[in-house]
Design a protein that fits this description.
Oligomer: single chain
GO molecular function, one term: metallopeptidase activity
Protein name: Membrane metalloprotease
Number of domains: 1
Distance between the termini: 24 Å
InterPro entries: MetalloPept_cat_dom_sf
CATH class: Alpha Beta
Structural class: alpha/beta
Strand order of the largest sheet: 4-3-5-7-6-1-2-10
Organism: Christiangramia echinicola
Number of strands: 10
Keywords: Signal
CATH architecture: 3-Layer(aba) Sandwich
């Protein structure tokens, strides 16, 4: 999952703290089981065309919480740049009513997925489900905010209300930049980064004080646990403001069959 540490906006130094969860809510459904596995276990299927030649991404958002067109475009570019899917990557968005369950724990998100997900693997097409929630994570505090969580091999949640609230703060990044950074980072975990389903070509896994890893040691990398942006505005990365993968993470993806 992605977290923002509390900011001193008077100084306007922005710090993104990226993290993920490997929680895998138990769910037994033979017809859907291929999409309900452990986080990172479908990395090769997502990266290569050996089994799946196309990708179908179902984005379900609560009314009033649709992601920006800019972030979706950036997200698709990120996927196209790193995967072999000769038959294309389709991103389909639809709105749903609020569950009324906020703040959420991961089991509640899993329940929403059971009720709302319609896209599952079919033939040579792999399916991803992304939920843009209308509330926050139950673990949020005054100092840390969870922005998103990849919690299964083809599932993730984005806490859109939290993103919008943060983007409205003085000196914060734009909503589109935060959305794209969150989407790309969490999909990096679906790709198996870091050491979460694909092997590391060289050692670059960061582990925090709680023993949680799955992040990159390189400062500025999309998969780093902490990315610091400049005073008042985001230090632009390649003109977009959205962090890029460093070469160590790219090496891992390429070793696993990606681009």
């Amino acid at each position: 999952m992605i977290k923002f540490r509390k900011l001193l906006l008077a100084v306007t130094t922005l710090v993104f703290v990226f993290s993920c969860t490997t929680e895998n809510p138990n769910e037994a459904d033979p017809g859907k089981s291929a999409n309900l596995k452990t986080l990172g276990s479908s990395a090769g299927d997502l990266l290569t065309d050996s089994k799946f030649t196309s990708m179908n991404i179902e984005i379900v958002y609560v009314d009033g919480n649709r992601p920006t067109d800019e972030s979706i475009s950036s997200f698709k570019n990120f996927l196209t740049k790193r995967t072999y899917k000769p038959d294309g990557i389709d991103i389909n968005l639809r709105s749903v009513a609020s569950s009324g369950k906020a703040p959420f724990d991961i089991e509640e998100i899993a329940e929403i997925e059971r009720n709302e997900r319609t896209a599952y693997n079919v033939g040579d097409e792999i399916a991803i489900w992304i939920y843009f929630a209308d509330g926050n994570n139950e673990k949020d505090t005054n100092e840390k905010f969870v922005l998103g969580s990849a919690f299964r091999n083809t599932s993730m949640v984005i806490y859109e209300k939290t993103i919008k609230d943060f983007a409205n703060r003085t000196g914060a990044p734009s909503r589109a930049i935060i959305e794209a950074s969150t989407l790309n980072h969490e999909f990096g975990h679906l790709f198996g980064l870091v050491n979460l389903g694909i092997e590391m070509v060289s050692e670059h896994e960061y582990t925090d004080g709680d023993g949680k890893g799955a992040h990159c040691t390189t400062q500025g990398c999309l998969m780093n646990a902490s990315i610091e942006f400049g005073s008042g505005v985001v230090d632009l990365v390649n003109g977009t403001g959205v962090p890029e993968l460093d070469q160590l993470c790219i090496d891992d993806l390429q070793f696993a069959g990606g681009k």
